[in-house]
Structures are given as structure tokens and as C-alpha cells.
Amino acid sequence: MLDKIKNAAKSLDDFFFISEIMASRKMAAMLALGFSAGLPIMLVFKVLSAWLRDVGVSRTAIAFFVWVGFAYSLKFIWAPLVDRVKIPGFSNWLGKRQGWTLFSILATSLAMFAMSFQDPATDLANVAVCAFLIATASATLDICVDAWRVDSAANEEQAIMSAVYQLGYRFGMATAVSGGLMMAGQMGYNGAYFGLGLLAAIGGSTALWAGEPGRAKAHLKQHRFSVAIPAIIKGLTCLGVLGAFFYFGLREGGYLRILGSNIGQAFSYLVSFIPENYRARTYAGFLFLILMLPFLATTYFLTIGRKQLAYEKTYAVPILGDFADIVRRVGWMALVVFAIVATYRISDTTMGVMAMPLYKDLGYQEGVIGTVTGFFGIFIMIVGAFLGGWMATKYGLAKAMIVGAVLTIITNLAFAWLASVKSPETIYLFVTIGADNIAAGFAGSVFIAFMSIMTNRKYSASQYALFSSLFAFYGKSLAGFSGMLADAIEYQNFFIVTALFGIPSLLLVIYTWYSGFTDRIMEERTE
Which domains, from first to last, does the chain contain? Predict the structure, then answer.
């Protein structure tokens, strides 16, 4: 009997990769790094919004703080630095990837400490500066963690690593919101930011043991002890200089504030030449041009710029060189890759904005919504993330992406069904949110894995940041119009339309599976 139980346990272990995940140092590091990356983001959104409202800041002013979140969408601009520049001291000590990781975590922690000394009731500008610094340092940490994950995991491990990353990231977000608000209730928001800053600093220890991809352990151990003290001094000095530059530059009357004001005035001056009745069309055209940039850059390298792909100096150019490298490796399929990045999660992103208004308009109470979307929703999303990672590992990434696209369409239709119910039964909310979160977790894991294998390890930080920024920018751009669409066609039709948004990505991933493109990239990708 005991042998049967052991054999059954071994079969389950082989099928679900349990021991491979639990006993892996790499997976443990991914969990810890995911936690460190997820902790700061809620501190510039939900926790900060609660603090500002508590001290009587207007809703209009609070809404403006959302703009600091553009750091997460624009991180591709400075991501090439992570690939091309070393942090003084830290990079020689720990390696380029972990040197940047430690630097970013400490910068995030320092920005939290700075926030803990602010008073939004008397100096809102300084609070905005600190929020900007937290968001920028946190976005840089995202770049580092994504690059480490891409570089550390083999192709077949990317989906499982993505699931573990999401688990850590969600824990970090939950700790920031739940822990931050509980700490605020006991010792005020200043104490909460200081306490979470300490927790973030402790999280920096992960960079000391996670290991540098491709670096010999024996050499690393010897190198750590031989240069530890001067490396720490150099790294902290670099951190202090950069922090002072941004902090003083963004304060009232600071040089960066003056520069930003001059740019704003110049922009307003240029806009004044556009007739008022044409401004909306001009803005729409400008937005469309930005959204088309990846496709225009790819088309350029496929046509008149093809000769540049033969010159190594092309790839030294930040951003443009990253585009060129993608085109060189996959050819015209780069257009398909960018189209998948732009559309794979756009259905979820667009409908997500209207989910909370739907719950309220159906009559669900805040306590019920919080219970279902809180612990239950996060738990189900994590289950979905591991299901996605398991299926991609067991049956292949291409097939898993098809399943993720189908689940996304079906769960959007579940919201259309919820919008049609006559009475707000709690069980309906559990079913709809459960289905949506398991699909979101599943699709999230395989999508992250897809973007990961599409990167070149030589430029993994900048290329993954490019992919993730484009995905976020496309989603936010379209989601901004979701309210107008919902007002025009009502909830039920709105969710049906957002479900249809998922069809293009489904067709694209079916094509990548049918053509064998995804499998070919996984085989050819440099290990």
C-alpha cells in the first residue's frame, strides 16, 4: 500500500514538476525577486491614494498622481542602460544583472524612506517627487528582474518561472496594500512607508545569493570577498549621487522642474497653431503614429534599411538596435510578434476598467466585492498562472497560448452573462471573477514566457522592456476609451465586443503554432 502511495506521489511529482519547483534555488530566487518587484507598485497607487484622501487632498489632485505610473510604460527608454552599462562597484561584485538588481532595490527603498518623511497636507509637491522616484526605481527593478528571469531560465522553464514570478509579485502587491494599510492604522502612513522601505531593503539580500546568469560560482564567491567593501562603498555612492540629482532637481524650483515647465510651454505654443476643431483629430493621429512605431521600424528594416542589419554598429544604438536585432533573428515574422504583443492581453485590459462599475451598478456591496476580488481572486489567479506554466512546459508554449487566448474570450463573455442577471447573487460574482482570474493567470504566464523567448539574451533587459512597455501602452491607450464604449452600447454588448477583441490574437497564435514558428525560435534561441 505504501509503495502504491509513493508511486502515485512520484507520478504526480513528475506530472506537475512539484519537486523541481520547490527544491530549485533558481525558483526560490524568482519568488523573492517577484515579491520585491510587486511591493512598490501599490505604494504609488492604492496606498498613496488612501493617504492623500485621508488628509483632504481633492480627487482631482489624486487622479493626477496616476501619471507617475507612466514610468512603467516608458521603462524601455532607459532599459538599454541595464544591458549596456555597469553599476560602479555592485556590478563588479555581483555581476551586471544582480548589480543592477541590488542598486534598483536599494533605490526603491531609499525613495520609500524619503516618502515617510513627507506631509501631503502641507507639501504635495514633495510627495509627488517621492512617488515619481518610487515608480522610476521600481520600473527599473522590473527591468532587472525580467532580464534575470529571461537569462537564468532555459526555454522550457520560462513558463514555470513566469508562474513563480507572478506568485511572488502578487504577494508583494498584497503585502503593500494589506500590510501598508494595517501599518498605517497603527502608526500612520509615514510609519507604513518607513516599515515597507525596510522590508524592501531586506529584499535586496536576494541579489547576494540569487546568482548571476552564466557566471562561474567559484569565481563569484572569490570575487565577492575580495572586493565586497569597496564595491559597497562605490555602489552606495553612485546611488546617493543619482538620488540627489533627481530629488533636488524635481523639488520646487529645481532644474528638472524648470526644464519640464519649459517643455510644457513649448508644447502649448505649438498646439496653439492648430485650430481648436482639429485638435482632437491631431491628438488621435499622433497617438496612432506612436502605436504604429514598432511596425514602422520593423517595416523599415525589412525594406529600405535591410543593409543596416549587416552592420554590428547598428545594434549598439539603444532601442533602434533592439528592433534591428529582433528583425534580424525572425525576419518578417517580427510583424506577427509585435502584433501578438499588442493584442494578446488587450481584451482583458479593455474590459477590466469597466468590471468594478459593473459590480456597483448591479448592486453588489463593497464588502462582497472586496471578499471575492481579494483573497479569492488572487488565489485563483495564482492557480491559473501555474496551470499556464504547467501546460506550456508539458504540451508546448504554442498550444498553451492558444488555450490562453480562448479562455480570455470565453471569460469576457462571462461578464456579458453577469451583466444580464436580474439579481446580484454572490455566487454569480464568484463564478465570473473566478473564471476571469484563472484565465488571466493562465494567459499571463504563457504571454510572459512568449515575450521572454522572443528576446536575445545579449539584449534581454532592453528587449523584454520594449515588449512589456508596448503591451502596456497599447492596452492603456485603448482602455481609456472603454467608458465611452460602455456608455454607448451598454454593459452586455460592451463585454461581447471586448471578447471579440481577442479574436485577432487567437488567429495570430494559431498561425505561430501551425507554422512551427514558436518551436523554431525556442530551438534557435541562444542558450
Answer: 19-271 (1.20.1250.20), 338-524 (1.20.1250.20)
